[in-house]
Amino acid sequence: MSELTHRPYSKTKNPDGTRNPQLRIGVEAILPYHSFLSDWGDRYQSIMRTALNALQSGQSEDDIEKKFQGKFDIDWAWADSVASDAKGIFDQLTTARDLRIKALDDDIKAGWKSVALTIELMEQQLANPTRKNMKGFARRLMGLESKISRLERKQVEKEEFSKAKRLHICFGSSKLFNAQYHLEENGYSSHEQWRVDWERKRGGNFYSVGKGSVSGNNPVAKIFYINNDLFSVTFTVPRFLRSKYGDTVSLEFEVSGQRKHNLLYALESGKPVTVQCFRREHKNDQWYIHLTTYVQDVPTVSSINNGCIGIDLNAESIDIIYIKRDGNPERCRNAISFAIPTGTTGQKEAKLRDIVCEIVKLAELYQCPIACENLDFSTRKNQLRHSGSKEYNRILSGFIYDKFRSYLVVRAEKHGILILFKSPFMTSIIGMVKYMQKYGLNSASSAAMVIARRAMGFREYIPQKWLKTLTAFFRPEDWKDVGFGGGWKKISAWLKKFSIRRPHLFQLDTVLRFLLNSLVNESQKKTHKRRKPGGSDKSGGSRKGKAKPTEAQVLLEREEAVVTNSGAFTVAP
Fold it and tell me: How far is the C-alpha of 194 from the C-alpha of 183, rounded, in Å?
């Protein structure tokens, strides 16, 4: 939650030593073109890249602030912004390298495990060289060799990343950088023509850190309110450009609606306003200004006493359900299901935001929190190549859980809705066993119900009917707690082992009868394999008369009597 939230705390402390939470917001507007923007944007990026190299060589932000003022003839506030901007990029590069090393490590471990299993299987096939076993053997052997070569290359790449002292980044895109080696193919007649586009691509952006205690809430990019929806930004021109533009450059921009009220509050309350100006190439090189500031934290309007909304995110749908305070769904309202968005990246993100808006609106209606699964697919995605399932790989690679979670947190914070992330342990199995038949839900909605109940503090015990029918196969502690010590895991294993599909669970009596017979038969087979010395002759008869009934047979007779007397169903002998 701390990685997703936009709710930081104020720097000033209250008399009791606490800090007030505040909400970070962004306001964006169009700027009229001025040549100062291009000149300073290009120069700023060049200075910032120099600062990044200085950080990689061991210098600190303070060293950069002091040295760069005289070196590039700029004001202290601009030097401070350059150092802060470079430090942010340096931290991102450090994190990216660590994540890349982890991804390579996960890939290599999963790869060698897959190689070991493949070698073991091929050795067994060689030991029994039938036509079926040897079909395509040479092709599989070549594939194994190719996989080993790839893993060795990845191992070398990991070692290089681990030993590298410098972090590399290409400002201006690697595609445009490589275009200089193929000028004609990329539409350039000379290297000088390419150079113009290269320098343009690497510029057009500058940044200024806000400060609430100065006029305009920013030392060198001051923001002022004029009237109606009109605001102005006054830039302090760096010293080396003052002979061309004077001391300051003022530009006007418009902000309306709720963004206007947020910006006015920040200006009047002395909140720092961080300014970033940038050029968008895909919008005819139009210049924009983006303001980042803080407003009052939105009070939380949701309460667990009003119930909870549970969300179950699957590869095909997003299912939500509202649970009342007593832990039951509202019967007059069915569960809601949204299809996973498809299309281009922009289309999927837009549709995903619309879904998040609908969920938050529903939470506002009930004034209740939202519960969601706390999942991490980073390791699984790193191991996609070696999972062996193309369908699973397709689902996991296209999964949008991280974006959905971040959109949900940001939207909920703006409307005072609390987001609760809970463990996804056995939610699907618990939902199918306990609630799918009871409330006529599908498996995804029943899992969402379990997530909501877990957020509300309810404990999910194994149903008594399951415990009584299969009592010989549960442990005593499964009756006392929620079964996390092994009970729910056993049920999950049984459903998978005996291929019990989800629709079958709507016929609970039939499923329990089938499970009981299957488990007893399996127990009998295990008992027959454990023959004691001298217990039987070669013909299979007992040497000491009638054989003693096995434990499994006793359990089966006892369960038959219980079930038959209850009238629920009859187990065939």
Answer: 8
The pTM of the full predicted model, rounded to 2 decimals, is 0.75
What is the strand order of the sheet 205-208 is part of?
Answer: 9-13, 19-31, 286-296, 274-280, 205-208
Q: Helix H segments across 233-328?
A: 242-245, 257-269
What are the backbone dihedrals phi and psi of residue 323, each rounded to the nearest 5 degrees, phi first?
-115, 130
**Residue 81 burial (10 A CB sphere; 0-12, 13-18, 19+):** buried
Write the CB contacts of 103 (distance below 8 Å, at least 6 apart in sequence).
378, 382
Cα(369)–Cα(363) distance, integer angstroms:
7
Residue owning tokens 């008399």: 15
Cα–Cα distance list, 548 to 262, 537, 541, 553, 554 (Å): 83, 15, 12, 10, 10
Average pLDDT per run of 10 along the chain, which is 573 residues long? Answer: 67 80 91 95 95 93 94 95 95 92 92 92 89 88 92 94 88 91 92 92 93 93 95 96 95 94 93 95 93 90 94 89 91 79 88 94 94 79 69 66 88 91 89 90 92 92 87 77 70 88 86 88 72 49 47 47 38 36
Find out whether 259 and 202 touch, Cβ atoms under 8 Å: no
**What does the DSSP assignment read for 92-144?**
HHHHHHHHHHHHHHHHHHHHHHHHHHHHHHHHHHHHS--HHHHTTHHHHHHHH
Q: How big, in percent rounded to 5, are the helix, strand and coil portions of the chain?
A: 55, 15, 30
Residue 500: half-sphere exposure toward Cβ, Cα within 13 Å: 24
Identify the CA nearest to 6 among candidates 319, 208, 294, 403: 294
- Residue 247 backbone phi and psi in degrees, to 5: -75, -35
